[in-house]
Amino acid sequence: MGRRTLVDHLVDGLLDDILDGRLKPHDALPPEADIAKTYEVSRLTVREALKVLRAQNILYVKAGRGTFVNPTDNWTGLDAIIKAASHGNAADQVSRGLIEVRRMVETGAAALAARRHTPEHAEEMRKFIADMKRHHESGDLDGFVLADIAFHDTVLKASGNPFVRALLAQLGQSLYLARRETSAIKEIQRHAIAFHQRVLDSILTGDSELARRAMDEHMDQTFEDYERYVYGPKS
């Protein structure tokens, strides 16, 4: 990760002002000079930060009137959307939302993988399931999570569609953190290993509908385990 700049820090500061309610939807931002004084940065830094926030539709401009705060449902910047969704006590919304996104993308990817996978893809998936079992037995949480993610990434590769991987790649850090939260529970690890094997077996049949259904059932298991073992005990 590159070194963070003054612009990055100011973007974060203004985003916090919005999420903490100091700046509400459709509020006008203070003049550039006031922002520069508050954050002890130059006006050039302020302009660059506002440009970043406008590019993500966090802010909008009214000609001759100034810069205003957009409601969060108009935002398009992924990091900002995740930060907004997880703000306060709503972190569970992020986990649920990520499972929903994974279901939409990965069920289709599994169906394509059933038709397009190569022997190399199959061997990689077998290896990652074996790695999951090994890390489960040794208690290596990070190793388990990385093997889990690698299995799913191989399914995406086996779909033969590079856009599928690109879609989920943008969620990489969030997916890792969500997986790590759930995989800390041994019972969830056991469920994941069993369902990964079902997904692989279905892909190897070459039956797209069977593979789609197996991945959908895996997403059901993921959601149910989250509700039972992670969200339930916290609520």
Which characteristics define this entry?
about 240 residues; mainly alpha; Arc Repressor Mutant, subunit A; Four Helix Bundle (Hemerythrin (Met), subunit A); 2 domains; about 5% strand; elongated
Give an overview in words:
The protein has 235 residues and is mainly α. The protein folds into 2 domains: 6-76, Arc Repressor Mutant, subunit A, CATH 1.10.10; 89-234, GntR ligand-binding domain-like (Four Helix Bundle (Hemerythrin (Met), subunit A)). It is built from 11 helices and 2 strands. The protein has helices at 6-19, 32-39, 43-55, 78-85, 91-116, 119-138, 141-158, 162-169, 172-183, 186-205, 208-234; strands at residues 59-62, 66-69. A two-stranded antiparallel sheet has the order 1-2. The mean pLDDT is 92.
Task: Sum this structure up briefly.
By secondary structure, the protein is mostly helical. It folds into 2 domains: 6-76, Orthogonal Bundle (Arc Repressor Mutant, subunit A); 89-234, Four Helix Bundle (Hemerythrin (Met), subunit A) (Up-down Bundle), CATH 1.20.120.530.
- Quick one: CATH superfamily of the largest domain? GntR ligand-binding domain-like
What CATH architecture label of the largest domain applies?
Up-down Bundle
CATH topology of the largest domain: Four Helix Bundle (Hemerythrin (Met), subunit A)
Helix content: over 70%
- The average pLDDT is 92
Relative strand content: under 5%
- Overall, the morphology is elongated
Number of helices, where a helix is a run of at least 4 consecutive DSSP H or I residues = 11
Q: Low-confidence spans: pLDDT under 50, at least 5 residues?
A: none
In the CATH scheme, the class of the largest domain would be Mainly Alpha
Indicate the radius of gyration in whole angstroms: 22 Å
List how many beta strands DSSP finds: 2
Order of helices and strands: HHHEEHHHHHHHH
Distance N to C terminus? 35 Å
Instruction: Output the structural class.
Output: mainly alpha
What is the domain total for the residues?
A: 2
> Strand arrangement, largest sheet?
1-2
User: How is the biggest beta sheet arranged?
Assistant: 2 strands, antiparallel
